[in-house]
Amino acid sequence: MSREVHVHTTAGLQVFARDGRHQWTSDEPKEVSGTDTGPDPYALLLSSLGACTAMTVRLYADRKGWPLREVEVFLAHSREHRTDCEGCDEKPMKLSALTRRLRFHGPLDDDQVRRLLEIAGRCPVARTLEGHIEIRDSLEP
Q: What is the bridge-based pairing of β-strands 93-105 and 70-82?
């Protein structure tokens, strides 16, 4: 399934995005010349991963008939210096790291919790982020 999202600038760093049915705003904090009218791009990325994770776990638990009441996903993004890579001595490498912590609510046994954690790692957005992504740029007429 492919859906196009249209993003356009407004004032300063604020942007509006829409996908045909929904619209949302993104911005940067005031400390970096934004107006802080919406989440920054990394917060949107994290929310995409969190939403996909929660939905994937929910769908799996529902299909299995497991007593999962709620899924909470806590996410963070950081840039870490990589020290164990080839060529790092000549050119310091930074690695983007996403941290995802989950909390499952409901009377689940240990095996169900372990399986849900495994399923969380298989959400489509996580698989996209972990794989090779090719971005193809072109000019719109």
A: antiparallel
Longest distance between any two alpha carbons in the chain, whole Å: 56
Say what the pTM is. Answer: 0.85
- Report the C-alpha dihedral over residues 116, 117, 123, 125, rounded to 10 degrees: 150
Which residues make beta-bridge pairs with 81?
Answer: 94
Average pLDDT along the chain: 90
Distance (Å, rounded) from C-alpha 23 to C-alpha 16?
7
- Rounded to 10°, the helix 110-120/41-64 angle is 140
* Domains of the chain, residue spans: 1-38, 40-130
For the segment 89-106, the average pLDDT, to the nearest whole number, is 81
Distance CA 15, CA 102 (A): 30
Domain 40-130 CATH assignment equals 3.30.300.20 = yes
**Sign of the dihedral defined by the CA atoms of residues 103, 78, 13, 34, in that order:** positive
Which DSSP string do the residues of 7-20 spell out, in sequence order? EEE-STT-EEEE-S
